[in-house]
Amino acid sequence: MTKTEQDRNISSSFAKGLSVLAVFDAETPSMTLAEIARRTGQDRATARRGALTLVQAGYLRQQGRMLSLTPRVLALAGGFLQANQFGRRVQPVLNHHARKLETEVTLAILDQGRVLLLAQSTTEHGPVTYGFTAGAHIPLVHTSLGRMLMACLPAEEAADLINAAEIPQHTEHSLTRPDAILEQIEQARTQGYSVTDSEFEPGIIGYAVPLSRPGQTPVVVGSSAPRGHAAGGQSERLLQGLQICAAELRQTGVVEGL
Asked: Is residue 135 domain-shared with residue 192, that is, in the same domain?
């Protein structure tokens, strides 16, 4: 099928409606129609039709001039998680290794230049940092998850992502030079793991290892710990635990469904 034939089969209105859903996040949980139009790049009339259609369908709630997501959007993610048996195949593995490592363990994938969290362990006593949940996006450049995901890509694709990405300075330790970041990505590609120290959160060390194999959709497993918690050989223990966790998840076949 040619690109022109594919384009004829695509509903631009539906795609624009989906882009309306995608603009809501933790920083902007509610917006006006004008803000939605600006963030989606749509004209005011198009954004209004898409938003009001989503209100009628139950995916958006309107209170005065403000619109926000409703819990119904979780059903969309729930269908994916159930179809790939995350509750039976993935969550128990993450929880098991989180208990052993005494810290959260996260499964993540690359999504339009950001890290998308697919699943996260539930632990009773593990240290919690920002408390992100499944479905959240986190920065690509300054997290161990993001750098390991880019290390799973060919070097040229990783370089394209860095050149196109915003590079804010989250902390005084955040790398801001593209060449320095690419050097860290290459190191992660060579050694098979990524470690970041205080680049996203002060005092927090991030760890990530690959789950996917070369040629597959990049998927990684990672964790984080306060610097004190990671002292005295704990970094090696965390990395080894993540590698074992990745090996067990690989056996479930979860990557094939992504």
From this structure: yes
